[in-house]
Design goal:
Layout lengths: L2 E5 L27 H9 L4 E4 L7 H8 L4 E5 L5 H14 L4 E5 L1 H5 L1 H6 L6 E3 L4 H8 L10 E4 L5 E3 L16 H7 L14 E4 L2 E2 L9 H7 L4 E2 L2 H14 L5 E4 L8 H11 L6 E5 L5 H9 L2 E9 L3 H6 L6 H14 L2 E8 L6 H14 L3 E6 L7 H9 L28 H16 L2 H13 L1 H36 L5
Parallel strand pairs: 1-2, 1-3, 3-4, 4-5, 8-11, 11-12, 12-13, 13-14, 14-15
Antiparallel strand pairs: 5-6, 6-7, 9-10
Helix pairs in contact: 1-6, 9-10, 11-13, 14-16, 16-18, 17-18
Length: 491
Amino acid sequence: MKTLFLSPPSFDGFDGGAGSRYQARREVTSFWYPTWLAQPAALVPDSKLLDCAPHNVDIKQCLEEAKKYDHVIINTSTPSLKNDSKVAEAIKRNRPETKIGFIGAHAAVLPTETLKASSAIDWVGRKEFDFTCKEVAEGRPLDTINGLSYRGADGKIIHNPEREMITNMDSLPWVADVYKRDLEIEKYFIGYLLHPYVSMYTGRGCPAQCTFCLWPQTIGGHKYRVRSAQNVADEMAYMKKIFPQVKEFFFDDDTFTANLPRAREIAKKLAPLGVHWSCNSRANIDYDTIKSFKDAGLRLFLVGYESGNEDILKRIKKGVTTDEMRKFTKSCHQAGVVIHGTFILGLPIETKQTIENTINFAKELDVFSLQVSLAAPYPGTELYEMAKQNGWFVKKDKTDLVEGDGFQQSTLEYPELNKDEIFESVDRFYRTYYLRPKPILRIIKTMLEDKDVCVRRCREGYEFFKSLRQRKVDLAASRSAAAASATPVTA
């Protein structure tokens, strides 16, 4: 079947392809590559990948494009499922014979609920769905395809046997040609990466046990399955050739440094290419390794610090202590490797004091840039189960994770800290961290060094403070709604 791989339009600026923590709007314009769609698209001849949000494709354009295809595969997420279901229904109205499949972490964990979300959804791909998509596109009978759930002729939902995880990652084709054919790479922005950038996966899965992390617990698994170092280096060389304008390559593996011998081997093979590259890392690598990566072209580590409180780190099974984080961060500073640190507020069991611990810890680390998220208990994660068992969810609908404008909302609260206090702390964290002399001077320095960076930072600054204002609007609306529901009705 002629197949369209689709990330449909939803919230304005919504990044449905985002990684481990959450899919949502960011404080500044940010779009990750839709690699989870590009990979199966590379397996299906004559397919097309349409990533609507970064390319400013509205629903009318999206539906017109979908008319051309026999088969549409939609990447959905917990926040966007309702919207994506409406898109599927509109596609069916325009062309009733179109077959529609849903994939993504939400569909993998809740296949029955996903199929029940709309009668327009014909099938759902569970777990690792690359070859599931390929086999459906080939026109095989649905009842013969492993890893697939579908609605039978009688309307009953059927779950086929699980599909085995891919063991030979080199068997997957490169995504480079799909990127080149279907994406305008200049449309993809991440605030802390050089622009334009390209991201790719060199492996799947993560051995860490973090309770909140989405992909290892839903699709990738906890075994780090990797492509060979030569395979990665060859695709990098190819990408450098077809994307000469790219300034940085990002390895989007959950933890690229989980297999250090292999990471070192890849670094050695990248050194002759003369490219800037960055990756996700845990905060537990020694100075000599960091320096060797730097000498091979590493520019930045994306590091999940999460919290500055030891009890919370233990509770979320982070596996790294604050002292280890301090040592790692100091080594990065010495080696000249930039860090973008990520922190999460609202993890079990947050208090006013633990938030202060985390803010002070972040200021002590003094990384180049940071992101502050709200704890997002996605279905399929241990955090979700903990929240359900302990009654931490604020709303009855446990999948209601974002506001109506696509920004994150605080979905958990604890005995000593309510959801509004957690929500407000994000704004305070950002202001406390960035409105200090050191971060301001760092940002000004990068702006003075490059005119394009100057223009970009001005835009990002405007968007950043606009998003903080929007958070206040969301908070006020939340409090107003809560007050209205608490007001007794009188005759």
